[in-house]
From TrEMBL:
It is found in: Cell inner membrane; Cell membrane. GO terms for biological process: protein insertion into membrane; protein transport. Required for the insertion and/or proper folding and/or complex formation of integral membrane proteins into the membrane. Involved in integration of membrane proteins that insert both dependently and independently of the Sec translocase complex, as well as at least some lipoproteins. Aids folding of multispanning membrane proteins. HAMAP family: YidC_type1. It comes from the Bacteria. Residues 370-572 form the Membrane insertase YidC/Oxa/ALB C-terminal domain. It comes from Maricaulis salignorans. Its main location: membrane. The keyword Chaperone applies. One of its GO terms (cellular component) is plasma membrane. Residues 78-358 form the Membrane insertase YidC N-terminal domain. This is Membrane protein insertase YidC.
Length: 596
């Protein structure tokens, strides 16, 4: 009996092993292939953004037959958007947000043309956001996508007080009802209710995508600015520049909480999933109508909707300017994870973030962004005063002993070892640390780069006026020295060189003068060639920074001026005569000579 039981157990074990092996090696992979095929089918549905029933011009290559904006907008039924910060419309085809202008931001300083952020398919610079559904359940390929025509249930105009309700009934038996609302800024709330009347359970996945067709023509091309696809997934920031995407680099990440979008220097459009659901964000490029389309999207994990039941799902869309207070308000009010990471803080984010916050509040206090920049620079100078004071004091002492150093070099010109020993004894006797002038400056380097990052990305600088001829702190100084800053009756801006590389305005020249003044206060380099190079640097920096945003040049000039004043006081305190003193004495002597 015992042997029969043993044989039975062995037979059962073999049968179980065969069944598990068959499941693992045959049935399981077959199911995975079937599921992958279904996912690929759904992904292809997401790609279908052109309705085949639309005019042929819309499905043709935009670079060849792009429609005028009004013609492209007229190809689909639309619902008007009229809010304090934005105006435009969204299309009932695909429930696509593809027509949005920013009311607080114009193309030109003092102009009437608003920034057009989102643009419809068929026009130039196609850029839109869309929210849809897909299903891994076989047979459900008719869910709301890019070609779905929604019906208007209620609401004629989308305002902050009046939401719009649209609906769609799929042939398979799913009823979708979508309520769209907008806040006073740039945040849309998209609330969907889905009812299953199919008679069977259905798996549903909600997705959102942002698509930009063609390489943007107004890229900044500066290392301090990020432009491309970005996402926050589970607290982690992921970025891919347009150039990387164009080279075929893709990326995806999964987690809970975050968003996915495409950003320019000052603007962004983002699709934002429910913050309590797991999702996968993805960056990719696709070929569409003969051009490369850049896409940033998310897909939520599937949820089962039983037969006869309903579910509610809330997502958001952000489309507007990257204003810090607006981003943080949406982040806090709606619980959107790290939406303010849309601003490119750089690797020195722990310094740049408080600088942006300070700049914003100083602007509110002073009423002028330029004055806020000056105040912020002064505050940083005050904080760094002890370190800078040590550095300048050490420079002053070094300048005092320069004659003795020159004497030692002349005495031991043939013996470098004795020369170094004598110099060390001199430094020890005079209580001078040769490195003391450099070490305190090191902490100021990251602060400078963080301020640079802040000013280059702060939208507060865009179209912000300063005093005099500066009407836009984000643009270069408009004056040009080649027509004596406007005194001569011709405009050199159209000239190849004098209006380009050598177009130097008043503020860059002031910056160069302050840099030269600061160099004059420092001990001259011992090597004559180094001294010539250092003397030439103010001219180089003047030419280099002439094309920078005037706000940055003003900051640099003001920072140099504060450093010159601080260093001059310290030098005089240590009894050093500066080049400025010599210049003043020379002018005084000349004036006395003229009187006599």
């Amino acid at each position: 009996m015992g042997g029969e039981q043993r044989n039975l157990f062995i037979a059962l074990g073999l049968m179980l092993a065969i069944m598990l092996g068959y499941q693992f090696l045959v049935t399981g992979p077959a199911q995975e292939r079937q599921r992958a095929a279904l996912e690929a089918e759904q992904a292809s549905l997401i790609d279908q953004e052109a309705d085949p029933n639309l005019p042929a011009a819309l499905t043709a290559q935009p670079t060849v037959s792009a429609l005028d904006r009004p013609e492209a907008l007229a190809t689909a039924q639309r619902v008007e958007i009229n809010a304090p910060s934005v105006e435009g419309s969204f299309s009932l085809t695909g429930a696509r947000f593809d027509d949005l202008r920013l009311r607080r931001h114009t193309v030109e300083v003092g102009g009437d043309e608003l920034i057009s952020l989102l643009n419809p398919i068929g026009s130039e610079d196609v850029f839109y956001v869309r929210d849809g559904w897909q299903s891994p359940t076989p047979g459900f390929t008719d869910l709301p996508g890019g070609t779905t025509v929604w019906s208007l249930i209620s609401g004629d105009v989308l305002t902050t007080e009046t939401p719009v309700v649209i609906g769609y009934d799929s042939p398979s038996g799913l009823h979708f009802e979508r309520t769209i609302s907008i806040d006073e800024n740039y945040l849309f709330t998209v609330s969907d209710s889905v009812t299953n009347t199919t008679g069977s359970d259905v798996e549903l996945q909600r997705y959102g995508l942002v698509r930009d067709e063609g390489m943007p023509t107004d890229l900044t091309n500066n290392m301090a600015v990020f432009e491309g696809a970005l996402a926050v997934v589970d607290g982690r920031l992921i970025q891919r520049k347009f150039s990387k995407l164009e080279d075929g680099e893709e990326d995806e990440a999964s987690g809970v909480g975050g968003w996915s979008g495409i950003t320019m220097r000052y603007w962004m459009a983002a699709a934002i999933p429910a913050q309590d659901r797991s999702f996968t964000a993805r960056f990719r490029t696709i070929e569409r109508a003969g051009i490369t389309a850049f896409e940033s999207s998310y897909v939520e994990t599937a949820q089962i909707l039983p037969a006869g039941a309903s579910l509610n799902s809330v997502t958001h869309i952000f489309a507007g300017a990257k204003e810090l207070d607006v981003l943080q308000a949406a982040q806090n009010d709606q619980g959107i994870q790290k939406l303010d990471m849309a601003i490119n803080w750089g690797w020195l984010w722990f310094l740049a973030r408080p600088f942006v916050w300070l700049l914003h509040h100083l602007e509110n206090l002073t009423g002028n962004v330029g004055l806020a920049i000056l105040a912020l620079t002064l505050m940083v100078k005050i904080v760094m005063f002890p370190l800078a004071n040590r550095a300048f004091a050490s420079m002053a002492k070094m300048k005092t002993v320069q004659p003795k150093v020159a004497e030692i070099k002349e005495r031991y010109a043939a013996d470098q070892q004795k020369q170094q020993q004598a110099m060390m004894e001199l430094y020890k006797k005079e209580k001078i640390n040769p490195l003391a002038g450099c070490l305190p400056i090191l902490p100021q380097i990251p602060i400078f780069f963080a301020l640079y990052q802040t000013l280059f990305n702060a939208i507060e600088m865009r179209h912000a006026p300063f005093f005099g001829w500066i009407r836009d702190l984000a643009a270069p100084d408009p004056t040009n020295m080649w027509n004596l800053f406007g005194l001569l009756p011709f405009d050199p801006s159209s000239w190849p060189i004098l209006g380009g590389v050598l177009a130097i305005g008043i503020w860059p020249i002031l910056m160069g003068l302050t840099m030269a003044a600061q160099q004059a206060l420092n001990p001259p380099p011992p090597d004559p060639m180094q001294a010539k190079i250092f003397a030439f640097l103010p001219f180089v920096f003047t030419i280099m920074l002439a094309g920078f945003a005037s706000g940055l040049v003003i900051y640099w000039a003001w920072n140099n001026a504060l450093s010159v004043a601080q260093q001059y006081v310290i030098m005089r305190r240590h009894g050093n005569e500066t080049q400025l003193d010599k210049l003043i004495a020379h002018i005084r002597d000349r004036m006395k000579g003229d009187r006599s």
